[in-house]
Design brief:
By secondary structure, this protein is of the alpha/beta class. It folds into four domains: 166 residues, P-loop containing nucleotide triphosphate hydrolases (Rossmann fold, 3-Layer(aba) Sandwich); 68 residues, no CATH class; 183 residues, 3-Layer(aba) Sandwich (Rossmann fold); 73 residues, no CATH class. The strands form six sheets. Strands 6-9-10-3-11-12 form a six-stranded mixed β-sheet, sandwiched between helices. A six-stranded mixed β-sheet has the order 18-21-22-15-23-24, sandwiched between helices. Helix 9 runs parallel beside helix 18. The longest helix has 16 residues. The protein is globular, with a radius of gyration of 24 Å. The chain starts with a strand and ends in a 12-residue tail after the last helix.
């Protein structure tokens, strides 16, 4: 075995993150690692990478005991490289410069041989089947290209084990397929891969074996070919009911129910609709989408109005949009379509070159985040660590970041009330943490995401903008977040949902807006549009005039 782990333990403030963990991985093996948020996956890979010190147990690497304390650079020298969910790159540097970071530069005559470095990086990329313009700044690359840069950087050294943490969280289907081919290429060359993800379909397609963790302990390690997604869901959750073959009424398997339960309540696929006013339910679907029929059956008010929005960098090119309350509006498009940039424009984190944004009746030509928040917008950001939270702050402090005034009376912060509210939110989303006072940086990525979502929903906003809100979450948490989006809609709020998960957008949305090259090219009914037709809009092969009142 390349890696053999025996009874490894790790505690944070007296609480076990890992307890008695056994794990093994062979040479040239693609091994899946799954579990609910807080199961211990992140802690385990950080121990392997030298980020955390283990509190007990033994780790054998190529048959040799590893010391209790190893530094990240020592781990890399052993041949262990981790590519985390969030990119660790310098945006202003080129791909080649990022690849060469941390490596000794070849020097001749006192000068760095940049051409030699570029040739070596390009040769390694070609060997892996990766085709990139390495002279391009990382800031101008797609998420998939950034992931490829990190993989090439890892493989420039003698990498024996590549750990991929939620590698497809920000990738399209096409980009995911590219990553799969790279992983298969690595396996063929004898490199072992530890593949950490919540996407069980990827586990089933790509891995040789899969290990399931629950509450910091090993549940089981099984051959992927001899198991099923339903069985993995059962092992992850500990719910024996999840092993049922099919639901008698809907015919849906257990995993589908967990992943799409909220979606079914919206679309009626499972015959279990959310309580909605009967008159609203009788309203014609297309009419509801165009007019904005809310949960109370009345035409919703305009929560967001956008006219002629253009970004200073030219990515967003003249977008008009009118979002009504009582609807979940999904926005979809391929990477590079301008979705994220458009949202940054309306929130105020990207400079406008023209146009205006109206939130709750207030028109802004230069919106700022503070103004947007004051007008009733809540924004669930895609970049949770870089923009949505302060890792050094506690869980509670991050939850209260934009709501301090609600817990301040006569100039005094009401900590008891804030503590109570924080614990309520932690309990509702099942955020796994030692307590509200635990630093947010110690939480898993999924639990950090839950904390951010709890904070934004707690604002009770008139307009909720959610950008990939379920990224990195387990199936149970996804179900809960979907139900919260539905609840906001049914309270007469406006929800703007942006996701790379096509199924999520189609199932949860009341209508879908498609972006292509910085423009809106279509408004579609998720109940009637086919995946093939949606693909034509996404690729720019088909476009319709989008009504002004959208």
């Amino acid at each position: 075995m390349l890696l053999d782990v025996k009874s490894v333990e790790k505690q944070f403030n007296g609480v076990y993150a890992l307890k008695g963990l056994d794990f093994s991985l062979g040479e040239g093996e693609v091994h899946g690692l799954v579990g609910e948020n807080g199961a211990g996956k992140s802690t385990f890979i950080k121990i392997l990478g030298g980020v955390y010190k283990r509190d007990g147990g033994n780790i054998l690497w190529n048959g040799k005991d590893l010391p209790e304390v190893i530094r990240p650079e020592e781990s890399r020298k052993l041949g262990i490289n981790i590519i985390f969910q969030d990119n660790v790159l310098i945006p202003a540097f080129t791909g080649m410069e990022n690849i060469c970071l941390g490596r000794p530069y070849p020097v001749k005559g006192g000068l760095i041989q940049w051409n030699k470095m570029e040739r070596e990086a390009a040769a390694k990329a070609a060997e892996l089947g990766i085709h990139l313009d390495l002279k391009r700044p990382v800031s101008m690359m797609t998420p998939a290209q950034k992931k490829c840069v990190e993989i090439v950087r890892a493989m420039m050294s003698d990498c024996k084990l590549l750990i991929l943490d939620e590698p497809t969280a920000s990738l399209s289907d096409k980009e995911t397929n590219l990553l799969f081919s790279i992983v298969r290429n690595l396996k063929a060359k004898g490199t072992s891969v530890l593949y950490v993800t919540h996407r069980l379909e990827e586990i089933m397609e790509l891995t040789d074996r899969v290990t399931v963790l629950r509450n910091g302990t090993l549940v089981s390690t099984v051959d992927t070919a001899g198991t099923s997604r339903k069985e993995l869901v059962r092992l992850m959750s500990g719910n024996e009911a999840a092993s049922g073959v099919e639901d008698a009424e809907t015919g849906k398997d257990a995993e589908s129910k967990l992943q799409g339960g909220a979606a079914d309540r919206i679309s009626g696929k499972g015959g279990v609709k959310q309580p909605v006013n009967s008159e609203a339910e009788k309203t014609d679907t297309q009419g509801a989408e165009l007019l904005g029929t809310g949960a109370d059956g009345k035409i919703g008010k305009t929560a967001l109005e956008v006219h002629g929005i253009r970004s200073g960098d030219g990515i967003v090119r003249g977008v008009d949009l009118n979002v009504k309350t009582g609807l979940i509006t999904g926005m979809f498009g391929l990477c590079g379509s301008g979705r994220t940039e458009f949202l940054e424009c309306i929130y105020g984190t990207r400079k406008l070159a023209g146009g205006e944004v109206t939130i709750d009746g207030k028109t802004m030509t230069r919106p700022t985040p503070s103004e947007s928040i004051r007008q009733g917008m809540a924004f669930i950001c895609e970049d949770r660590r870089g923009k949505a939270m302060i890792p050094a702050f506690t869980v509670e402090e991050n939850m209260m970041l934009s709501s301090i005034d609600r817990y301040t009376k006569s100039g005094w912060f009401q900590k008891r009330s804030a503590d109570k509210k924080a614990m309520e939110m932690i309990g509702a989303l099942k955020i796994k943490c030692v307590g509200a006072g635990q630093p947010a940086k110690e939480l898993s990525g999924g639990n950090q995401q839950k904390a951010i979502i709890a904070r934004e929903i707690d604002k009770d906003p008139d307009l909720l903008v959610a950008v990939q809100p379920t990224r990195g979450l387990d199936v149970g948490a996804i179900e809960y977040i979907h139900s919260q989006l539905v609840a906001q809609r049914d309270k007469g709020k406006a929800v703007l949902l942006v996701s790379l998960e096509l199924d999520e957008v189609m199932d949860v949305s009341d209508r879908i807006l498609v972006m292509y090259e910085g423009e809106l090219v279509g408004q579609l009914d998720p109940k009637t549009v086919s995946v093939e037709e949606l693909g034509l809009y996404m690729a720019g092969a088909k476009r319709d005039p989008v009504p002004e009142e959208v």
